[in-house]
Amino acid sequence: GTGMGLPAAVRDRVAAVHRGSTLSERLRLYDGWAAFYEQDVAALEYRAPHLAAASLAFAFPKPHAGARLLDVACGTGLVAWELHRRGFRCLHGVDGSAGMLERARSTGLYQELRLCVLGRDPLPAPAEHYDAVTVVGALGEGQVPSTVLPELLRVTKPGGFLCLTTRSNPSNLRYKAELEAALGQLERSGAWQKLLAQEVEYWERATSEEESARGTGYISGVVYIYQKYPVPHLEEG
User: Which stretches are annotated as coiled coil (predicted)?
Assistant: First the structure.
């Protein structure tokens, strides 16, 4: 078969998390996965953190160092590494897994880290607090519901950016359609404007034949960048 040459343990851990039936069970699985997470995503050739950070840095107009960013579902800090490399220094993170947060804390890349289960808890931040919000890898079937979008918008400054990713593999297509409907609805209501929807063919290695895109051994994914309205006018002068 295709290069499903992934260690069985990696495949099993990924499948378990995506299969986790209840929220508490999934969070427990993530806690247990924290110790193996970075080696597993390296085996998966998981490119989302890199692609998301590069897209956000490209969209972001002003110097990055002073901008305040919220990394939602931050996991072990993979997105923070990528943002930090691109000059972002003021990073806050939230995640539903205490085990993941412990790893993120050990990177020293975050100014602030908080436990927060998205879809159940509000984000621990005041309105219009962040210059940008990222949700990389967590928007998917059985993970973070697409109903969280207004909460992400709430904590974003007017003119601020939202960088979201989801997968395009067969088992996530229903969720992706729901997400895109919700994204479009918010755009039509004047909440934000779409700057980018970039489909990426080699997103990460597939964990099963069924999920693989046309037998490549990989699944595809997409990076979205939105800008919150109203966009502040630049001062003339």
Answer: none
